Fold:
Amino acid sequence: MRALRHQRPNQHDWYMNKTHAPIVEVSNLRKVYGSKVAVSDVSFSVQQGEIFGILGPNGAGKTTTVECIAGLRESDGGVITVLGIDPQIRPELIREQVGIQFQEAQMHDKITVVEALELFASFYPNPANVENLITLLGLDEKRTSLFKTLSGGQKQRLSIGLALVGRPRVVVLDELTTGLDPVGRRDTWDLVRKVRDAGVTVLLVTHFMEEAERLCDRLVIIDNGLVIAEGAPQHLIDDTSGATSLEDVFVAITAPTRNIVLEGVFA
Structure:
């Protein structure tokens, strides 16, 4: 998709040309809020072109982790590099390289799809082509529709588009299908695959086991601020005795006495 591919030279192109160099690398990340440890010790690496999942229950430390990766939050320990840059030291260099779709897509009720994308495009020196992006999002028929008239799935697709309009190399999608019906969820999954196929590395934050199993090339499972499993979904399933799904893997590697309620995960 030409709309998302980078045409301009970049001072960090040398990093992207290194064979098998991780595009994102996190080592021993730690984040504390007062007496609460949100992220205790998280390490993983992401290769260019992957859909990489960060999976775990609500409150596990997933969003805090990606906010540190994007330079939106200061860590209390560990090392992060994105495209060879430390986002904790130079967050301004990360903003054009990492797009973020937040958990809830909210815009002014009376802004149209095309107006929202054009507004966000104006923030970047070399944005994606808005019309091509609308087509990628499957919103051609809604390009002049008001935000308030969009369905939940259409709002989420627009939110993804706003994260992509700066032509980032990495996009963070945080709980993007929460609240969607099954049809909207699967349509959104198809869009995520198209984004990956357009050359964008995807960090997918989710607590939906099926979503991670269907979409992710590799993933980490985080619980209580710690990585408790890492690998390709099918490898994790194959390596866990009696498991036929990621849900089974999670149950198997979590303490039997743990009492959790995850809406929509184990239903």
